[in-house]
Amino acid sequence: MRFSTYLxxxxxxxxxxxxxxxxxxxxxxxxxxxxxxFANTLEQLESQFYAAGLSKFQDSDFSAAGFAASSIAIQxxxxxxxxxxxxxxxxEEELTALGQNPNSTCSFNFDSALTDVSTMAATARVVxxxxxxxxxxxxxxLTDPQLLEAAGSILTVEARHQTILNVLSGTGTAIPSxxxxxxxxxxxxxxxxxxxxxxxxxxxxxxxxLTVTNTGSVGQGTSLTxxxxxxxxxxxxxxxxxxxxxGGNPFSISLPYNQCVVPSTINGPxxxxxxxxxxxxxxxxxxxxxxxxxxxxPTVAFIDAQPETLGQxxxxSGTGTAxxxxxxxxxxxxxxxxxxxxxxxxTVSGAAATATSATDSAAxxxxxxxxxxxxxxxxxxxxxxxxxxxxxxxxxxxxWSNIPSN
Length: 406
Hints:
Strand content: 5-15%
CATH class of the largest domain: Mainly Alpha
CATH superfamily of the largest domain: Ferritin, core subunit, four-helix bundle
Number of strands: 12
Helix content: 25-40%
Structural class: alpha+beta
Number of helices: 10
Number of domains: 2
C-alpha cells in the first residue's frame, strides 16, 4: 500500500543489511531529497494504517467480513505491514546519511477507513494501488541511479501486495490489466491527503481532493456523482468533464460531468479526474504533469466486473454485510443428500461435496450462486459440477471431488 509515492526511494522488503540501497554519506539533489521525504511520510502512513487495523480487529471481525479463514487475511496484512515498516526505516536511514532530518511533522487519522474489516480491506486495496502508481510516477523525477534501482525493487513488491489485496477482496481480478498507471506527486497527494491529520508540509502541492458520493457499490453502468472543494455552488457543472484513466490506454476516457457513466470496458482500478474541458488526459505522467485543465482529483476506484474463483474461495462475501460466521468441511454423498433433501432437493450425484454451512440465511444470501441444473425447481437433482447456493439458502457448495468406492 503505499502512497508511498516515491518512496521509491529506498524502501526494502528485508532487513537493513539486505536493502537495495545502503545508507552512505554523500550529497543528494534537492529533488531526490524531496522524493525521499515524501516517500518516508507515505510509508509511515501505510505502515501505521495496517498496524491500526490489525490492532483493532479480531478473528471474528474478519470472519464476519466473509473470509473463509480469518488467518489468511490476517497473515497477509501482517506481512504487508512488515514490508511497509521496513521501507520507512530504510528511508529514514538514507535521509540521515544525506544529512537530512526525516520529516516527523505529519500525523494521520484512519477513523473513516477502520469502521469495519470490509472498509479497511477496500481502503487498503486503493492505497496499495496508489503505491504502485506513485513508484511509476516518481521514476522520471529521480536523478540518482541508486535510488531509481531501489525504486524498481520496491515497485515489484508493491505490485505483489496489490495482487494479494485484489484476491482478498473476493470480488476483484487478481491481475486486472497487463499495464499499470502512473500518477504525479500532486495527484498522489489528492488521494492520500484525507488521511493526514493537521498540517503536513511535504513541499509538494496537492491537487484538490475528489470524492465519489454514490452510495452502495460502483460498477459498469453506474452514473457517478462527486464532491470536491473545487466544485462549489458557483461552478456550472454543465461545462465540466469527468476523465477516467486506466492502465494501458494512452489517453483518458472523457465524458460530460453530468453523464459520467462507468463504461462497460473497465475492469480493475480507474483514476477519475474532473477537468474544465473535454481534452483527454495523457497517461504518460511526464506529459500529463503539464496539463492545465485538471480541476480536481484523481480519486481511485475499483470496478470489479470480472471476479475470479481464487478470490471467491478466500472470501465468500466481498461486501462483508453479513454478521454470521461460517465453517467449511468435506461431507460424504450420503450426508450431502440428507442435508439437501431437507432443503427441498431430492438427490445428490455420487460425489463428495465440499460445502459451507452458514449459521444463518443472511450470511448465505451474500454469496454468489449458480442455478441448480439451470432450474428453479427445488426438487431437481444436483449436477456434479454445481457450485453455489443450494435451494433453501442454508448450504453453499464450493466444490466437488471424487471419492474412491473402497
